[in-house]
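Job type: complex structure
Entries:
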Amino acid sequence: MNTKNKVGGTRRMVVDWSQAISMLVLFFVYMIPFVLIILNSFKYKRDIIKSPFSIVAEKGYTFDNYLVAFEKMNFLRSFSNSLFVTGLSTLIVTVLASMTAYYFVRAKDKFSTVCFSLMAASMIIPFQAIMIPLVSIYGAKLNMLNHRTSLIFFHVGFAMSMSVFIFQGFIKSSIPLSLEEAACLDGCSKPQTFFMVVFPLLKPITSTLVILNVLAFWNDYLLPSLVLGKKQIMTLPLSTYAFYGTYSADYGTIMAGLVLTVAPILVLYLVLQKQIISGVVAGAVKS
Amino acid sequence: MGTMGNKPKEKIRNLIIFALPGVSIFFAVVIVPFIYGFYLTLTDWNGVTATKNIIGLSNYAQVFKDADFWSSMGLTLKYVFFSVILVNLVAFMLAYVLTNGLKGQNFFRAGFFTPNLIGGVVLGFIWQFIFSRVLVNLGESTGWGIFSTSWLSNPSKAFWALVIVTVWQLSGYMMLIYIAGFTGLSTDVLEAASIDGATGFQRMFRIIIPLMVPSFVVCLFLTLSRAFMVYDVNLTLTGGEPYGTTKLVAMHVYEKAFTARNYGVGQAEALFLFLIVAAISGVQIYLGKKKEVEA
């Protein structure tokens, strides 16, 4: 596609410029909500109401909004809850899904075929069609709600099918059986073969899946809202929601709270931009 | 045949080590509740009492009589229709321009994708501020009537607010998938077409779009299923307001079960949503396969 740009001409230049300008305008439109939130998070309430657009605030800037928000939404506590839940869920689903997929590819038995088709088919079930019985089984019957470990258990269960599906495709197409056979001749057990030989080879697809799962777990609201009712164990989206409900009239505090919530993921994005983008694309195209 | 052990005993041991943990969690969290859900629709459970009475199919009859459910379903269809079209249109155009060798295109791509990284709850709150304060302020200072009152307090404008936020959230994601499609296009075919004198219009509709069918399938499938299930943004942007006019079906199902404590009817309605999503996915996959073969 690049070849055609090298052919000059006025018409081509006009098209190029109009494209560049329209991209700039659109980019501005896409970014303005973030800019406004950050800008207003440093202002006093009166200035926010009077002129949310102006860069110069009459009463000057303040950092108080952040101090209040940080304390009132218990940022550190909900941040570490989110970190704990997201981290452990991702770790467990990665290990279990890769092992399951490995078994499915290599065993080729009836059990594998049936389970794999069930997993593939289950990917079209909307969460809403499971949440009500989920709450009635694990809440009313087993009394397992209100624990972070239960949330991890559910995250793992819901992420399993897509993760197995993606691992399965990768193992099938790019892990040669001969490598494992060589390892087995040296006297490796199956779990040893898997963890020493196969799992390291899965690295590209593992990083894709880790990115997809981390984003999904970190941002999830509906499932955690059904599982975690107690304040002390709330994840970041839950405490943001609770915080917004209580302080919705204190615009400055609210803006600061939103910035604090968004900041961790934006920082991660700045550092791992390439990996995140290619991971998301690979995940979407494969499933 | 398989290489997970020659003797049956070894094979079973490997099955238990490798597949059983993952498969049993999947069954416990997805399959068992899904099946149990059918049983729930036959009961009158209210979420509190220990006993449930089997009441046959009357919950399904209730679904048909639940006018709120049907109006939220109608609204959801309208929302899905506009969101899917606009998201894909915007995403396709962005991808087309951003694969043209524009300076700084990676920067633009990264920027357009940013909203998708952030959870729906926060996005909804951000835009609630934009619609209810920033735009109203803009309306007051410029005299533009369209912004004089908050969009979120007017039923039809609140609906469009939802669509706008959805487009803002999802178009960057779909753009990435279209970009992957564009980059995979064979330059030979496009050059041959140009040499043969194809106009830009012909190139787009006769060559690029047919070759991009796989990307369209992926994107349509993703936007459709995500739009049907949307909850977070709905909750925090409009909360179903004003007067419950922007309640999408996911929110209706949630409230039916957990607020009105009518688990059986709620689950029956959720299954209805499931049927729609499943049917759409089925049609989409079928059409995609067929088109791919033809092209």
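Summary: Chain B touches chain A through 98 residues (CB under 8 Å). Residues 60-294 of chain B form a domain with the MetI-like fold fold (CATH 1.10.3720.10).
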